[in-house]
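Suppose a colleague, Dr. K., hands you the sequence of a protein chain of 126 amino acids and asks what its three-dimensional shape might be. Before reaching for any lab equipment, you can write down a predicted structure in C-alpha cell form. Begin with the sequence itself:
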Amino acid sequence: MILDPKEGKADIAILNGEWFITTVNDQAISFDMYKQPVISFNTEEERVNGFSGCNNFMGSYKVDEKINHSISFPSLASTMMACVENMELERNVLNALNEVRLYKQTVEGLELCDAEGKRVVTLLKK
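The predicted structure, expressed as C-alpha cells, is then:
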C-alpha cells in the first residue's frame, strides 16, 4: 500500500526513529551492520542525522504544511573523513537526500521521493 501524497492528513510522527537506507535511486545497498547507511528522525525537534556510508550527517528537515507528505533536507552537514571503499555510496546517498521532496509510507517502510513522486531512497525501520 502506497499513500498518495495528496490523500489524507500526513502524520510526520511516522518518520520518528532510526531507519536503514536500503536503496538509493533503485540501486540496492548490500547490508553490512557496521557500514549500513542509516537515517534518524527526531520529529519533536525537526532534526535528522545519520550515516551515509563513510561520514555522519546531521541537520534539520523541512515540511511544507500546504503539501501533504512534504519533506526536504535543506541544510545537511557532514563530517569530512575520506573512505576508499564507500565514497561513491556516500555521494549517492547525500545526492539522493538532496532531491527528496515527499515521503510515502509503504507496507515495508518508507519511500523518500523527488518532486515528481519518483522514489529516490527506500527506508526500512531499524
